[in-house]
Amino acid sequence: MTDSSTTNPTPAAGNEDKWSSQMYSKHASFVPALGGPVVQLLAPQPHERILDLGAGDGVLTLDLEKQCQSVVAIDSSADMIDAARKNGCKDAHVVDGHDLVDHEELANGQFDAVFSSAALHWMKKDPVRVIQGVNKCLKPGGRFVAECGGFMNIAEVRTGLHWALKKRGFNPEEFDPWFFPGVQTYRKMLEGQGFRVDSIELVPRLTKLNTDVAGWIDTFGFSFLKPFEGDVEERRKVIEEVQANLMFSADDGVWHIMYQRLRFKAVKV
Ligand SMILES: C[S@@+](CC[C@H](N)C(=O)[O-])C[C@H]1O[C@@H](n2cnc3c(N)ncnc32)[C@H](O)[C@@H]1O
């Protein structure tokens, strides 16, 4: 794919880039490390052309590149795409998942599969539009294989963040960036946009962090911290308070969060 931002990627239009590839590799290396089951469900083939949606810093993209003909990695974060390129991804571009549907080069039915790991739940503005875009990228019979946060994902830390904001007079709904659908909700969305669902399940996963809850919030909870951008002390207090209320999430000094993954395979009919 051609790209005007090959050396200096800019954030996708209208998006403020709050992702930090440095924080991500420091605090969140467990995310791509736990991507094995969804890569297995994808079962990439050597002749295939695959689109990785929300590819992040490209750790899983590179894994896919070894198994198929080519992979195009897209992500709305310029910082993540920059890191993906530095990590060796050959074809990585700043594209928001919501804009796929109108994308001249990608939305023309050329991909054998669209893959996505740990990213769809961030595309909350219009999840149906994202699915429409995926459909337009696929060949007939092409597959959409993904894993994302599902119903009741990270409920304890999300509840903690909601309380911390409510207590300070903010409406947490306005700052909550996630869409965690249940099986029936997402199945209907897929079927409504021209997919046959071959498998879809919620998979509970107690997840060991390689950081503490504070590090996790710093990496992933940035939207909730927006009201405190000008107040470093209050920002720190919010993070500490949420972690303090989750003391029981540490076992022998290792912090855990209860994840609930939505994993599915759908085929373009
Ligand atoms: C938790 S990371 C997952 C990255 C990678 N797939 C992995 O498994 O390591 C989520 C990624 O979704 C991307 N993302 C969030 N909203 C997006 C959007 N609207 N369009 C495309 N990517 C998005 C973020 O920039 C981030 O890189």
UniProtKB/TrEMBL annotation:
Domain Methyltransferase type: from-to ranges: 51-145
InterPro entries: Methyltransf_11 (IPR013216), SAM-dependent_MTases_sf (IPR029063)
Name of this chain's protein: Methyltransferase type 11 domain-containing protein
